[in-house]
Amino acid sequence: MNNTVDFELLSIVAPAFNEEDVIQAFYERTCRVLEKLDLASEIVFINDGSTDRTLEILLKLKKEDSRISIVDLSRNFGKEIALTAGLDHAKGCVAIPIDVDLQDPPELIQDMIVEWRKGYDVVYATRNQRHGENWLKKTTAQLFYRLMRVIGGRAAIPENTGDFRLMNRKALDAFQKMRERHRFLKGLFSVIGFKQTSVVYDRDPRFAGTTKWNYWRLWNLSIEGITSFTTAPLKAATYFGLLVAVLSLSLAVWTIYKTVVYGDPVAGYPSLMTAVLFLGSIQLIALGIIGEYLGRIFNETKQRPLYYLQDVFESNPNSREPINLSTNSDRLDRSS
Ligand code: UDP
Ligand code: MG
After folding, report:
1. What is the pLDDT of residues 268-326, one digit of tens each?
2. Would you state the pLDDT for residue 133?
């Protein structure tokens, strides 16, 4: 983690995994925005174990622009961890995580800065429309947010927000205190609280390349979100058990009554089967839920580092001159 904080510096934090087609366009568009700000800036790129020319392009950019720093991870860790590594290396008094695929318009940074200057600690970007996403993705996303609002309680996640947001040092420090392995960033961002506001934008389709998300990964992310954010499913199993217990007790009373008063012969193989199978499956589901939590406890107790660094090439935000890469790389930093 960095220990020097620059008090008039903006850190743009951009994770990149196999993004050779977009990096250049992202860099140029972001630079045009940064030029207009009355604030010094750095761009922290995270190379999340890319197998294409991403790192090569980043190193080339860095040679020409000393505001760039590159955090090169030892393998692919996933966006959540990559972003965390980038935020750990951000030196600014404000940081803005942003996707390099230009789905988060860099122009919004200006609006975020305006809100930040008004005294907000966190300015998150809310999507107005989701261009280039089909109805299935839109509906499932909507359902997920609704579910999270119902079970999430006080630290509810604002709807239609991603990781694209501005955080000041106070919020960033609070965020960095949470070192859990299972990272559902949107949840962690809303756990910290502070003075928050939002700016609205239209989400564009990907500039180039393909998304690394498929429905299976999104499903897993949703499970991650729910289990790392709330223990409500564990309670749900209890209450459902109670409900079924009450129902079956009433059924038992009714059956006894029927047998005693009407002398009904005991029949009911189908209903018996249904009840047994139903309860069996509910028990398995409940066990599975417990297993999800147990597995997470197991992973957290190992206390492994969140990521490993292959290399760090630090930025030098105060000088715009090209700087020598070899003197500027910090090969020793392999912490957290
Ligand atoms: N990303 C990453 N590691 C991964 C997957 C994605 O660093 O394992 C980065 C990716 O390069 C991009 C951002 O995270 O900058 C968002 O990824 P993507 O566009 O695939 O996700 P989507 O926008 O579809 O949610
Ligand atoms: Mg994207």
Report:
1. 776 787 788 888 878 888 888 888 888 888 888 888 888 998 888 888 766 544 434 34
2. 67
pLDDT value, residue 12: 95
* CA 15–ligand 1 middle distance (angstroms): 7
Query: 282 C-alpha to center of ligand 1: Å?
Result: 36
Measured in angstroms, how far is the CA atom of residue 205 from the centroid of ligand 2?
Answer: 8
- Per residue in 193-234, pLDDT (tens digit) is 888 888 888 777 676 667 667 778 788 888 887 887 777 788
Query: Which of 12, 13, 17, when mutated, tests ligand 1's pocket best, judged by the most ligand atoms within 8 Å of its CB?
Result: 17
191 in a structural domain = yes
Which residue's alpha carbon is at the smallest distance from atom 8 of ligand 1?
A: 78
Residues 269 and 198 in one domain: no
| Whether residue 19 has its Cβ less than 6 Å from ligand 1 | yes
With a 6 Å cutoff on the Cβ, whether 47 touches ligand 1 is no
Residue 138 and residue 23 share a domain: yes
> Which residues does 166 contact at the CB level (< 8 Å), separation at least 6?
94, 95, 96, 109, 112, 113, 115, 116, 122, 123, 124
164 and 267, same domain (yes or no): no
Shared-domain flag, residues 224 and 239: no
**Nearest CA to 14 among 48, 39, 59, 57?**
48
**pLDDT tens column, 36-77:** 888 889 999 999 999 999 999 999 998 888 899 999 999 999
Cα separation, 60 vs 5, whole angstroms: 26
CATH code for the domain of 160: 3.90.550.10
The reply to whether 86 and 145 lie within a common domain is: yes
Indicate which ligand has the atom closest to the C-alpha of 14: 1
- Please tell me if the CB atom of residue 104 comes closer than 6 angstroms to any atom of ligand 1: no
Output the six-digit token pair for 11.
């850190």
Number of structural domains, the chain? 2
Please indicate, yes or no, whether residues 74 and 188 belong to a single structural domain of this protein. Answer: yes
Domain identity same for 43 and 68: yes
Which residue range(s) make up the domain with 193? 10-230+305-313
pTM for the model stands at 0.71
Cα 47 to Cα 4, 58, 123, 309, distances in angstroms: 22, 9, 25, 10
